[in-house]
Known about the structure:
- With about 300 residues, the protein is an alpha/beta fold.
- The chain has a domain at about 5-180: Alpha-Beta Barrel (TIM Barrel), CATH 3.20.20.
- About 40% of the residues lie in helices and about 15% in strands.
- The strands form three sheets. An eight-stranded parallel β-barrel has the order 3-4-5-8-9-10-11-12. It has a two-stranded antiparallel sheet with strand order 1-2. Strands 6-7 form a two-stranded antiparallel sheet.
- A hairpin with a 6-residue loop joins strand 1 and strand 2.
- The chain is globular, with a radius of gyration of 19 Å.
- The model has no long low-confidence stretch (mean pLDDT about 95).
- The structure holds NADP nicotinamide-adenine-dinucleotide phosphate (NAP).
- NADP nicotinamide-adenine-dinucleotide phosphate binds near residues 160 and 265.
- NADP nicotinamide-adenine-dinucleotide phosphate binds next to strand 12.
Amino acid sequence: MKRIKLAPPGPEFSRMVYGTWRIFDTKPTAQEINRRLHTCLELGITTIDTAEIYGLYEVEEVLGTALALSPGLRDKFELVTKAGIYVPCSHHPACRTAHYNATGPQLLKSLESSLRLLGTDHVELFLAHRPDWLTRADDTAAGLNEMLRTGKIRVAGVSNYSVSQLDLLNAHMEQPLVTNQIEFHLLHPEPINDGTLNQCEKLGVRPMAWSPLAGGRIFDPANPAAPRLAAAAKSMAARYNGATLEQLAYAWILAHPSHPLPVIGTNKLERLQSAAQADAIVLEREDWYALWEAAQGRKIP
Length: 301
Ligand SMILES: NC(=O)c1ccc[n+]([C@@H]2O[C@H](COP(=O)([O-])OP(=O)(O)OC[C@H]3O[C@@H](n4cnc5c(N)ncnc54)[C@H](OP(=O)(O)O)[C@@H]3O)[C@@H](O)[C@H]2O)c1
């Protein structure tokens, strides 16, 4: 697995990241998650993406327990967490309505909770999970700057921010933001043309691409793009050592010149292994466009 610097000063992450949003789908024990973490390391995937809200605020604790099962394991990973989304549930009994809160004090409080649950004194990267429409950028930045000053996070970034929202927040940061984690995949290519990926390229920061397989929709027979993508993948597989649609979908993201880091979401070890091989695939230009056409169901303009 290749490695890549998220921004010129770092940090360095694995080219593909393991995401923990769906980790409870198969109800794994901490031991099983611990085994999955070891598999990640064997594959060279050293960056783990999580968030305060995952598993309705319960994933970080299980991840922390799984990390603690092997002494020294935490230090082999770069941990990414995010905060700022609050929904009514037993962990937020006073919450009436789902809402965003990216005020500095709230983000600081959430980070403290994440560090405690993950069993660590710092994370490598902290992201404001969603832009909060009711918070001034200087307020969010004050929280992120405080995290950076105390060393509880090494670098800060955002997720799901528009180009202008990222610019505005950056203007208040003491250290520039290092990423925008966004939805980017064959069924959601919009970041190519809405300025999001161009902004990352211009700033010299790497985007992180969530739901790289469209949450599994690229395989869903009910999705009209799925058979077209399957046929396109089959037609080009021989040029890439028999690569599967799954691997070509990752390679399609990796090929974009802004150098996105796909965040893998599978719970299956064999799919994790096959995903990790995708970073060696260099898609030919015409195949990249052929996959775009198959996904969109139309010719390029
Ligand atoms: N920042 C944000 O707002 C945000 C939002 C969403 C996600 N994320 C991050 O991105 C990560 C990945 O997102 P994601 O889970 O949506 O990623 P994804 O890789 O697009 O989707 C994973 C889903 O696709 C299924 N899948 C994989 N290969 C398949 C195949 N060959 N056939 C059928 N189904 C297949 C998986 O099932 P199996 O488990 O059975 O393989 C799983 O349910 C998350 O864990 C999280 O860390 C961030």
